[in-house]
Design goal:
The chain is α/β, with parallel strands linked by helices. The chain folds into 2 domains: about 100 residues, Leucine Dehydrogenase, chain A, domain 1 (Rossmann fold); about 130 residues, Rossmann fold, CATH 3.40.50. The protein contains 10 helices and 11 strands. Strands 1-11-8-7-5-6 form a 6-stranded parallel β-sheet. It has a 3-stranded parallel β-sheet with strand order 3-2-4, sandwiched between helices. The protein has a two-stranded antiparallel sheet with strand order 9-10. Helix 1 runs parallel beside helix 10. The radius of gyration is 19 Å and the shape is globular. Bound molecules: NADPH dihydro-nicotinamide-adenine-dinucleotide phosphate. The site of NADPH dihydro-nicotinamide-adenine-dinucleotide phosphate has 26 residues, from helix 10.
Length: about 300
Amino acid sequence: MTEIIDGNEVGDAIRSELDGCVDTLADAGVRPGLATVLMTTDGASETYVSMKQKACDEIGIEGIHEEIDPDAPAERLFDKIDELNEDPDVHGILVQMPVPDHVDKWTVLNRIDPIKDVDGFHPQNVGSLVAGHARYKPCTPHGVQKLLEYEGIDTEGKDAVVVGRSDIVGKPMANLLIQKAPGGNATTTICHSRTDDLGEKTRQADLVIAAAGYPELVDGSMISEGTVVIDVGVNRVEADNEKGYELVGDVEFESAKEKAGHITPVPGGVGPMTITMLLYNTVKAASLQEDVDVELP
Ligand code: NDP
């Protein structure tokens, strides 16, 4: 029987443990604060940010939201980041990507104080993760790692294939899987758009993590019996419904389900974990900056 992994259930379990951490911080007179900065009018980005703010509110994290006119000079965003870096009530800063073309993304990532970089994208945090001393693991790959942990799926000695090599999902995911640490120790292959014969790679895997942003790229013919299939992709495809579209993953769920040992659905798989791990990193950021010990899940 294929097990469908429920990201909402695992996310809720972790959030209730984070509630306890927020209480511990409150006892010490600390309220974690997360600042989100939006420099776009893109609807999807606005939705993501408002979901993050709502999740903060639900567990007692102070949400601070800043909007910058997308036509404003890049300096306006950099000044705002400087201001938030200095604000003692702000423990985490998240600049919602993408930023407009005239704003250099690399400068943005470098500008955020690494101790407040709850996305884990600052080069100092990326380096720490690669070296096996992660301070803030990027939220989506960390969420995948937690899903596997909560489902009792051991990665040690397994052959893992990560489809996608982006800085926010594919690369950090692979870096977590190769660590000599719990949730790691997997023999890991990274595939991308220039990979020759993707199916040949995925069929050899015990664990396939699809993060390509390509609808239903991985189908049942590309996996072997019993494979653990984690679908990170969220793609809008046209549909004959009220909204005119539906969300599908990077995995063709119906055919992959026939063979997979475990599989995540879209929506309801990795998505809820990403926001949960942002809360986790914000609680950790407050704990580090305020020197209050908390027992993170
Ligand atoms: P990017 O577009 O930044 O990266 C996609 C990666 O997939 C690239 O490395 C690209 O290769 C590779 N790729 C694209 N097409 C193929 C293909 N046909 N075969 C093999 N590899 C391919 O995307 P992200 O990493 O930001 O996101 C990936 C997906 O995950 C998206 O659908 C996104 O919406 C979703 N996402 C979901 C989150 C969640 O919380 N559930 C959070 C973040 C992302 P190359 O490098 O050669 O171009």
